[in-house]
Amino acid sequence: MIATWAMAYDGVKKASGELKNNISAADALEIAIKEVENHPFYKSVGYGGLPNEQGIVELDAAFMDGDNFNIGAVAGMQDVKNPISVARKLSEQQFNRFLVGDGATAYAQKNGFERVNMLTESAKSSWEKRIEEMKKSELSPYDGHDTVGVVCLDAKNSMAAGTSTSGLFMKMQGRVGDSPLSGSGFYVDSEIGGASATGLGEDLMKGCLSYEIVRLMGEGLTPQQAADKAVYEFHDKLTKRKGKAGAMSLICMNTKGEWGVATNVEFPFVVATETEEPKIYVARKGDGHSTIIEEASQEWLDNHEE
Ligand code: SD4
Asked: How far is the CA of 75 from the centre of ligand 1 (A)?
């Protein structure tokens, strides 16, 4: 299992332990993502997620089963504790697999998903503070955003991919990023591998980078080669044509459990394999089209904990 950001560590630990007991990739992915969604300190996923400019927490999530390509997704959903579970349930339907706004919220309610006011006091005060700061300076409202994305392989060689996010802090009401979009925020094919993205959705969705990485792995590239090629070539293309590229960090894994990461910002992520306990790594862009990946140092972990 590979997952975006250090916040995924507890979820990956819990889910990878269960994978050893032979649970499915889909179940493991849901366990891992729910753990992040339920944590009130993680400000951009689930409970405690930062709100949009109206002060409302709008949640996006997606689930994909790599065996049969089933996809379920929600966007702009409110007051539902575990968006990933709603997305997974939708993936089992024949029609109506991607629901937005009130429709997504109503579906979750009707199907018994737990309702919770997702705006914590702490997220509300961050929002109030940011409104004040924005009155005084040119501060970008969009700083600070971390989606949880997971790619998972199980003992029977099934794969799953999924995402969950409250999107960009101070986003416009109704704004949706890459996370619930197939091919952009996530993609998985159990005969090849899977990928997932985090970063600036407005740029990520221009490159369909999750699909591109899976396609490149299908052509024989290792996950690291595929991630490097897809992400840095697109970063260069965007920079050339538009002057700059937003933050883009991609994770991927193939059917052998080999993994790769590419990113144009400093990017922590978590990996657990059959032989390796869950570990936090930090990736950054190297020279040319390469990525430097190091295990997170004790100092880094201490800072993060704080
Ligand atoms: C979005 N990609 O809504 C998400 C936000 C994110 O790290 O991943 N931030 O655009």
From this structure: 12
